[in-house]
Amino acid sequence: MYVLTYMTMNRTIKLKVQLTHADKTALLKTIAVASDIFNFITDYGFKNKTFNKMNIHNATYYPLRKKYPEMPSSLLQGIRDVACESLKGVKLKTQPTANEYSALRYNQRVITIKHNSQNISIASISGRVKARYSLPEYYQKYVEWNIKSSTLNYYRKQDTLYLHVTIEKPTPERNIIPAQVLGIDRGIVNIAVCSNNIFFNSAQIKNVRSKYAYLRSKLQSVGTQSARRKLKRLSGREKRFVTDVNHLVSKGIVAMPYNVFAIEDLNSIRVQKRRKSKSFRRRLNNWSFYQLEQFLRYKSEAQRKQVVLVDSRYTSQKCSMCEHTLKSNRNGATFKCKECGFELHSDLNAARNIANAGISCIGRLPVNQPIVMSEPTTTDRQLQAPHF
Fold this sequence. Notes:
By secondary structure, the chain is α+β, with helices and mostly antiparallel strands. The chain is 41% helix and 21% strand. The protein folds into 2 domains: 8-170, no CATH class; 181-381, no CATH class. The protein contains 10 helices and 15 strands. Strands 2-6-7-1-5-4-3 form a 7-stranded antiparallel β-sheet. Strands 10-9-8-11-12 form a 5-stranded mixed β-sheet. Strands 13-14-15 form a 3-stranded antiparallel β-sheet. α1 (21-47) crosses α3. The chain is elongated.
């Protein structure tokens, strides 16, 4: 038995800000000035090899207040904090820079958001700007959550300002429950294979991925400016397709009657990837496995479930029945143990090994183990991946 405990759950919602022309101009000027301030601070920090907030504050605050007297003090200090975090993030190896309309982070002192009336009051170099926003129906469930921070983003193509609001909510402790572990093997042919015999893939997904790969190679071979522009648009469509599929896959997995999901550690996957061929690495990079992990984590968190990471080494070579490990056990999509003769789809065998490793990760506390090492059957030997 074990207890699932979380402190808070965090989400980010995207709100379209409705502004008059004058207020929009004021906010855009504020963003531009904030970018100049950010660059001034990072320039000082990079040249003096420091990201200490106190040192940077003492050296830059008053010169910046003199140069930009219209910038609210609280907003200036928030920009300083972001600049120091950026310098720390790159370990002072390079100087972080902001373009004219980089995103501007607001703390609670310089912005007020009222979900009930859907009104916003935002600090700017021209004083407080009052605006409205529309809250999509999907976001209605977040009305009672606490606002943590906000970021103002300008989308040039749409000529629109959006507010990205990070919200949080305390997660109550879950009662003591038995652990039901589901192992998930992520791969190239099958996006996800679960230890309960569920495969996530379909002919449609394979066709779309092949189409994007073909078009990408053609455009890259042309190399013209027009081809590069089209390649950029194609990349955006492909990313949206991947995001949509990852949402569907993670939603389907979390809906299963398990409270612990075991997946492979991406760091160990990267180590193995370096040993593979260039074509294999390219195919592996074409799918966002990390995004799938993030979606799985936050959807699990909302259901008070848990995601654990396990070492991916030998999961495809080990027999989930007798644990005999041999590279030749696997032959493409087929796994056949040289020791006991157990035969299974190779991805499903790996998912069952991941489930067993997940049970160990939870700890040496007694748990109710899922059936991941059942006796081989004809169905196991001839398992076909269902469409998703």
